[in-house]
Amino acid sequence: MEEIQSQPDNYRSSSSSASSPATSRVPSSNFFYLRKPGSLRQPISFEDSPDWGDDTDIDVRADEGADSINAATTPGSPTLSKLNSSSLPSPPVPEGASVSRRITGASVVWKDLTVTIKGKRKYSDKVIKSSTGYALPGTMTVIMGPAKSGKSSLLRALAGRLPHQARTYGEVFINGRKSTLPYGSYGYVERETSLIGSLTVREFLYYSALLQLPGFLFQKKSVVEDAIVSMSLGDYANKLIGGHCSMKGLRSGERRRVSIARELVMRPHILFIDEPLYHLDSVSALLMMVTLKKLASTGCTLIFTIYQSSTEVFGLFDRICLLSNGNTLFFGETLACLQHFSNAGFPCPIMQSPSDHFLRAINTDFDRIIAMCKNLQDDHGDLSSVNMDTAVAIRTLEATYKSSADAAAVEAMILKLTEKEGPPLKRRGKAGKATRIAVLSWRTLLIMSREWKYFWLRLVLYMLLALCTGTLFSGLGHSLSSVVARVAAIFAFVSFTSLLSIAGVQSHLEEIKIYTSEESNGHSGAFVFLLGQLLSSIPFLFLISISSSLVFYFLVGLRDEFSLLMYFVLNFFVCLLVSEGLLLAVASVQLDVFWSNLTLVLVHIVMMLSAGYFRIHSDMPGLLWTYPLSYVAFHTYSIRGLLENEYLGTNFAVGQVREISGYQAVSSAYEISASNNAKWNNLLVLFLMAVGYRVLVFILLSFRVGTSLCRCKIFRCNRDSTRDE
């Protein structure tokens, strides 16, 4: 301990006096956190809470729907320390801002929480080590720390969303009870969420409400409008979200607020947000935090992670949990955190953001910068701004916090919050499966009609391919010599149109990402998603099949009978269903456009080779090519059915006397069956393959979501929590 206490004196800041000896600490009165308005030249010590007097105060107002922060003078407010300590109620909503509906929050307490994930780190499996803290209704609690410090793991542990390989020790209390968070009682916003760019903000939230909530339509419209008001999205409610198909839409700040508004539709008691300021500039970040502060004033409990923030944003936090390598270096009020760093010998320099100072002190990555800069010099002779041992700082801060009054105050508050059980959180109702299937089907149809890459471009490509193939094989006639060319035409049409389905990879990947996001919060399911996607794709695929088939059928000059034409269209339609199912199966495994396209091209090429055109099935090698590839390739059944539809029941004259059947004429070029029901058997096999591929997708999606989002039972005390950590 003596070694630890002697090391902080080596810290030198670029903002402190360069002439100060290394053994003397800079007085804390030279450092400040907040200033009284108008006194820009007078530094204020954060040791004393700044009293802003009774004359004026700066009020940050977020106008509903606005994208700017307006400053207004209001009557004097109480001191900041009282506000942060929650001894006073939240300030009233400023005039001119829309009043959001009150939300009943819930207290969250975690005690000695340890999370281990096997193989997560090389040096330790413990990503969270004996963390203790709490969050109260109507407040914002932030989990801060450098990269890989355990912020997201702690947030997921509190929300019950850890992966299946994680093990949790310790206790988590909700309103003083050891219980899990039921559906609808909380919302969780991922760091990167998928939005539907072809929908407006209001449409996106409305469809989300239809998926999540039971009840009547007017009730869902009401909660959507409340969510829009809460996240200050009024000016963007009727604008497209954008981001797909080269659509111009919302900026990153507005998109982030839309993702939060989606969770507010359920009116949760607790809202977990992973990096709300992710990829936001300083203005968007400040607007985001002011909006969340306004949301917290309605009573909701906010817990979120953050990597770094400006001074203005830092001043909006109520409590901070500071992590480094899974260790809790501090938990308490924001001003107390500044005092804690000062007591440990690391006061915040003048004109430096508190969060920047915290991360500079506890981020071990700075040690590499120190090693790089050993031989470099600045204007003062050396790079004094980076001359600091972060390992020593982390040990000092941790030891100081454990013996501080802040840690004792946290323990006392936790004891008070858990000594008496509060009301349990109730499970909210959920929309029925039939409702969710109908909503997903209609929403996907709307997306198809608006995204030209999803629908219109693919339709044009299929028409062009049918036109090219049809004109290439036009004028064949109906003689015996045209049989081989017709077989080639049908093979090219089926094979290349099936291969063209890879144009929909990007759209299907976006659908799967949206499904994953909705499934993680319980808004959807694999069966609901697949059935809704199938119902919405049927009109699209049928339009492609009938338009492409008509062009090809009449250009090539196939038999002019209506029943034969309808079978051709139906066969090609089911073939497209199988191809779409194969695409979904590959996209469910390979969540990357490049690898999905590469895999699909390879699979289609292998199926084309084993379809029986380049070499008939009886002449193929028995191992692998005949069994199982030729039976797995859906091209085989589609081409065979179309040839049987065209040639069974026909005869060709050979010379003046002799005739041969269509079956005999085709057999030398392609192996078909002589049965009159053969073409319907092939159609049945295609239909079963379309169903089988979607069953496979159902299994893949269920397995994928189940493994990545498996909930752990973290809301119980593990009997082994007392073992050595």
Automatic annotation (TrEMBL):
Taxonomic classification: Eukaryota, Viridiplantae, Streptophyta, Embryophyta, Tracheophyta
Transmembrane segments: 455-477, 483-505, 526-556, 562-587, 594-616, 683-703
Subcellular location: Membrane
PANTHER family assigned to the protein according to its UniProt record, in alphabetical order: ABC TRANSPORTER G FAMILY MEMBER 11, ABC TRANSPORTER G FAMILY MEMBER 3
Bias type Polar residues, positions: 1-11
Name of protein: Adenosinetriphosphatase
Family stated for the protein in its record: Belongs to the ABC transporter superfamily. ABCG family. Eye pigment precursor importer (TC 3.A.1.204) subfamily.
Membrane topology according to the record: Multi-pass membrane protein
InterPro entries, per database record: AAA+_ATPase, ABC2_TM, ABC_transporter-like_ATP-bd, P-loop_NTPase, Plant_ABCG
UniProt biased composition (Low complexity): 12-29, 77-88
Domain ABC transporter, first and last residues per copy: 108-350
